[in-house]
C-alpha cells in the first residue's frame, strides 16, 4: 500500500463546529508538499466517531479529489458495530478510496477467535485492501501476533497491520514471525525508529500533521539504514512527539495545527481544546523547533 509516512489526518472544524472543507484542502496539500506517502482519513485522529454520515461522504470525496491519485487515501471505517463497518466500507469503495483501516472492536471487544472471524467476515465483503488496527489502550483488546497472522493468511485483501502496542516483546514477535508480504506500520510516533529497525514499513503518524517533512525524512533514513541520521531526527523532535499525547489525541495536535494556521482549534465533544498550561508548553516547543 505504502512505505514511509502515512499521516492520520485531523478533521478541521469551523468556529461554529461544522466541518471546514477549505481547511481540509489546506491540510491535504500541506501533507503532499511535505512528502507524505499516504493519507489516513477519518481515523481516531480525525475524530471519526463524531463525524456524521453525510459529512463522512463529503470528506472522502474531497480527499480523493485533492490528492488526485498522487498518494493513496485510506479511510478509517472501524466501529464496534459490524453493520456500520460494512456500510462505511461500501461508501469508501464506491467513492474510490485506496483502502480501509479497521480497528478491532471496542467495548464489545470479543476474543482472539471472534476477532479472527470478524475480520474474515468483513474481508469477504469488500474488495478494498484492509489494514487492521491494534490499539489496546483505546479498545481494551490486544490483537496477538498469531491471531493477526491467521487473519492475514485467511484474507487475501488484508494487507497488514497498524500496530499501536508498545510492548516490545510482542512487537519483536510480530516482526520476527510475520508471513511474507504482510505490511507493518508503527501506530506510535515515538517508536517509529526502533520499530522500523525491526523491519516495519513505516508509521501512521499523528505528529506528521504538523511536521510531515521531518517524519518523512525519519522514515527515509531508516529505510536507507542511516541510523545516525534517523536518530538525530528522532531525538530532535521526541519532546514534541510526546507533547502530542499530553492530553487525549487529537486535542494537542489540533492545537499545534492551529498555531500553524492550518485550521481552527475546534473539536467536537467529548473532546475540548487543550488546557492553557499545556497549550503554552506546546507553543514553547514549537517555537524552540522553529515551527512558529
List strands and helices in order, with pairings.
Layout: E1 4-8, H1 21-33, E2 38-41, H2 53-67, E3 73-76, H3 82-94, E4 99-103, H4 112-123, E5 130-134, H5 136-139, H6 145-154, E6 158-163, H7 168-177, E7 183-186, H8 192-197, E8 202-205, H9 212-223, H10 227-243, H11 251-259, H12 276-288
Parallel strand pairs: 1-2, 1-8, 2-3, 3-4, 4-5, 5-6, 6-7, 7-8
Helix pairs in contact: 1-2, 4-6, 9-10, 11-12
- How many discrete domains? 1
Point out poorly predicted stretches. none
> Mean pLDDT score, rounded?
97
What's the level 1 CATH class?
A: Alpha Beta
Class of secondary structure makeup: alpha/beta
Query: Helix tally?
Result: 12
Anisotropy-based shape: globular
Total number of strands? 8
Range of helix content: 40-55%
The biggest sheet, with number of strands, parallel, antiparallel or mixed sense and barrel status, is: 8 strands, parallel, barrel
CATH structural architecture:
Alpha-Beta Barrel
Oligomeric status: single chain
Strand content: 5-15%
What fold name stands as the CATH topology? Answer: TIM Barrel
The CA-CA distance between the termini, in Å, is 33 Å
Side by side, the strands of the main sheet go 1-2-3-4-5-6-7-8
Amino acid at each position: 500500500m505504502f512505505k514511509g509516512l502515512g499521516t492520520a489526518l485531523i478533521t478541521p472544524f469551523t468556529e461554529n463546529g461544522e466541518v471546514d472543507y477549505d481547511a481540509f484542502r489546506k491540510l491535504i496539500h500541506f501533507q503532499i508538499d511535505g512528502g507524505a506517502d499516504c493519507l489516513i482519513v477519518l481515523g481516531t485522529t480525525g475524530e471519526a466517531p463524531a463525524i456524521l454520515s453525510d459529512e463522512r461522504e463529503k470528506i472522502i470525496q474531497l480527499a480523493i479529489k485533492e490528492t488526485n491519485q498522487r498518494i493513496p487515501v485510506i479511510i478509517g471505517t472501524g466501529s464496534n458495530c459490524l453493520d456500520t463497518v460494512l456500510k462505511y466500507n461500501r461508501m469508501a469503495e464506491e467513492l474510490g478510496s485506496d483502502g480501509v483501516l479497521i480497528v478491532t472492536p471496542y467495548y464489545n471487544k470479543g476474543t482472539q477467535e471472534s476477532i479472527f472471524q470478524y475480520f474474515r467476515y468483513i474481508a469477504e465483503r469488500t474488495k478494498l485492501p484492509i489494514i487492521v488496527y491494534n490499539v489496546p489502550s483505546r479498545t481494551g483488546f490486544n490483537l496477538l501476533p498469531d491471531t493477526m497472522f491467521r487473519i492475514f493468511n485467511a484474507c487475501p485483501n488484508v494487507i497488514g497491520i497498524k500496530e499501536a502496542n508498545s510492548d516490545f516483546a510482542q512487537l519483536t514477535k510480530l516482526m520476527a514471525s510475520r508471513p511474507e508480504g504482510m505490511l507493518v506500520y508503527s501506530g506510535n510516533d515515538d517508536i517509529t525508529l526502533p520499530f522500523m529497525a525491526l523491519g516495519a514499513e513505516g508509521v501512521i503518524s499523528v505528529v506528521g500533521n504538523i511536521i510531515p517533512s521531518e517524519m518523512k525524512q525519519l522514515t527515509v533514513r531508516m529505510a536507507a539504514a542511516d541510523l545516525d541520521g534517523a536518530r538525530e531526527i528522532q531525538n530532535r523532535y521526541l519532546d514534541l512527539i510526546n507533547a502530542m499525547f499530553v492530553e487525549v489525541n487529537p486535542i494537542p495536535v489540533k492545537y499545534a495545527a492551529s498555531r500553524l494556521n492550518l485550521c481552527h482549534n475546534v473539536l467536537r465533544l467529548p473532546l475540548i481544546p487543550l488546557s492553557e498550561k499545556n497549550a503554552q508548553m506546546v507553543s514553547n516547543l514549537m517555537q524552540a523547533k522553529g515551527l512558529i
